[in-house]
Write a structure and sequence with these properties.
The chain is α+β, with helices and mostly antiparallel strands. It is built from three helices and nine strands; from the N terminus they run H-E-E-E-E-E-H-H-E-E-E-E. About 20% of the residues lie in helices and about 25% in strands. A five-stranded mixed sheet has the order 4-3-2-1-5. The structure holds zinc ion.
């Protein structure tokens, strides 16, 4: 199992509500992740095969394919209500395009893009950075059910967006990465101090 599938397998085991679809097992160009019927994330990938100069054996000079990330695209979940299967699946056609159509998802998209930019600056291996992003993203499964940690409401009217929005800002507890208890703060944009 290559490192990408290892990360996805580990991530899927966090919760029954996490469903992962790949366009292909051999030549994966995107991953679609759904947190139940709440939210979806599409991760665009491209592969490269690195060549080891050390090995004299021609066959072993080509390592496992490595994946680099092209884009993240947040949108609505396309899973039917009560979807049960929880294995990593292969599908043939994309079911989510890159159009958002909802300000709530756009605001989550901008958080993920800035998180990813921070990770790229840190020069970590992309597949392990993906693991961190996915772990953070998994907190959105309670997008419409977790109250704001500041005002304790779920939906409030956000004038800048012109609609009711849930606490869609997710901030990780800096001191609680490995410990028990709540891992992320949920906040409305207006409630971020
Ligand atoms: Zn709030």
């Amino acid at each position: 199992m290559n490192e990408l599938f290892h990360v996805l397998d580990k991530f899927q085991k966090i919760s029954d509500e996490i469903h992962i679809f790949l366009d292909s097992l051999e030549d994966t160009s995107y991953i679609q992740i759904y947190l139940g019927t709440v939210i979806g994330l599409k991760v665009g990938l491209y592969q490269y095969k690195s060549v080891s100069e050390q090995s004299s054996d021609l066959n072993s000079r080509f390592s496992e394919p490595r994946y680099l990330i092209n884009f993240f695209s947040v949108g609505k979940s396309h899973l039917p209500y009560n979807y049960k299967d929880s294995s990593i699946l292969e599908i043939s056609q994309p079911v989510q395009n890159n159009s958002f159509g909802n300000r709530i998802y756009e605001l989550i998209q901008s958080q993920i893009d800035s998180k990813w930019a921070d990770i790229l600056i840190s020069h970590e291996l992309q597949v392990y950075s993906l693991e961190k992003i996915l772990h953070w993203f998994s907190s959105f499964k309670s997008l419409f059910t977790s109250p704001c940690d500041s005002c304790l409401s779920i939906l409030i009217f956000e004038p800048k967006v012109g609609q009711m929005i849930p606490p869609l800002i997710r901030i990780e507890h800096p001191e609680n990465k490995s410990g028990s208890g709540k891992e992320t703060y949920c906040l409305h944009p207006a409630c971020v101090a």
